[in-house]
Amino acid sequence: MLTFPDGFLWGAATAAHQVEGNNTTSNWWAMEHAPGSPMVEPSGDAADHFHRYPEDMRLLADAGLNSYRFSMEWARIEPERGFVSRAMLDHYRRMIDTARENGLDPTVTLMHFTVPQWFQKDGFWRADDAVDLFSRYVETVLPILEGVTYVCTINEPNIAAMLAGGEDAANLVAFGLPNPDLAVADTLLDAHHRASEILHSVSGVRAGWTIATQAFHSTGEPGADEMLAEYGDPRDHWYLDQSAGDDFVGVQAYTRTFIGPEGPRPVADDVETTLTGWEFFPEALEMGVRSAWERSGGVPVLVTENGIATGDDTRRIAYTQGALEGLHRAISDGIEVKAYQHWSALDNYEWASGFRPTFGLIGFDHETFERSPKPSLAWLGEVARRNGL
């Protein structure tokens, strides 16, 4: 058996906007309902996790998992500039408590892409006071984080900077990623550092951000290696470099992209692809973890997302088996990995792609919201119980 370290966290992950439903004060809700929106469909009720989180957490725990990563929604907590909803703070505190009551170590993300509509209207991450406003939000939620060990400040700042580059979210499932707004990247880094300082005022909290690692592959042609560096540095590598000195770095790995001398190549016709059009490539996780460890100078790694959009659950299990085998190789080589959190706990709203790409270990009925745990949940739960493959 491939055994994982003692105390290893086995879990699943969600993001508030993608599962809670009716996140009406967020910028994404506004984008979904705008005339000519590039979104396939609005998020609507999503999976109604806002009301059903106790059941969802119980399903994860009963399967054998011992951790759950979820995000708090800034737009709910501060729906208007300067107004704090005490009820929403209490809601997220109850989520933290409920996770613990179910034996799930809560990993909390403070911002998973979405921001309040007023924040976007007042300049978004380009506003002079953007870092101050985010820091104020972190200070607001600080009291309810007592006892939480791992706090992710910003989810995938590399993707957030690309979204801010002016291209629509549909491009995030294409082979060629949008050009990032480098000024926004700098602001997100400042926001991350300020948030980490605030979080460290609470004993025991460990702060880090999560990076969407891309597993870029050079084709080996003349000029391809140089293009990989030019293309990959502002979309992936720089963020891992900036993780040096953090308490941990979150790795979110799904697939790979080949880079030729002209740039990224489309997925080849003869490879297996997922519902997002990505290549089925479990080895992406091992590559992302190794890259994060090397570039950060040995910062501990949490796998905060890894999974596959498929309607065939046997392929989900096969993908996860391959990813975990690679993760074990990295750990065997001395890389410090603390957790594996599968994406996603639930089938959810996949941004511009709508509900079609199903990543979940748990399915649900879109009318009744009845939950349907998939065989992959039981499989991963057994891995967790054994702490090994």
Overall SS class:
alpha/beta
Radius of gyration: 19 Å
Strand content: 15-25%
Runs in which pLDDT lies below 50 for 5 or more consecutive residues are none
Descriptors:
single chain, 389 residues, alpha/beta, eight-stranded parallel beta barrel, three-stranded mixed β-sheet, 13 strands, 39% helix, globular
Polypeptide structure, described:
This protein is α/β, with parallel strands linked by helices and 389 residues long. It is built from 13 helices and 13 strands. It has helices spanning 16-19, 27-32, 49-63, 74-77, 86-101, 117-121, 130-141, 157-163, 182-199, 224-241, 284-296, 313-332, 375-386, and strands at residues 9-13, 67-71, 105-109, 150-155, 206-213, 216-218, 249-253, 257-260, 263-264, 301-306, 337-343, 362-364, 371-373. The strands form three sheets. An eight-stranded parallel barrel has the order 1-2-3-4-5-7-10-11, surrounded by eight helices. Helix 8 (157-163) packs antiparallel against helix 9 and helix 8 (157-163) packs across helix 10 (224-241). The protein is globular and about 55 Å long. The model has no long low-confidence stretch (mean pLDDT 96).
Question: Summarize this, please?
Answer:
The protein has 389 residues and is of the alpha/beta class. Helix content is 39%, strand content 16%.
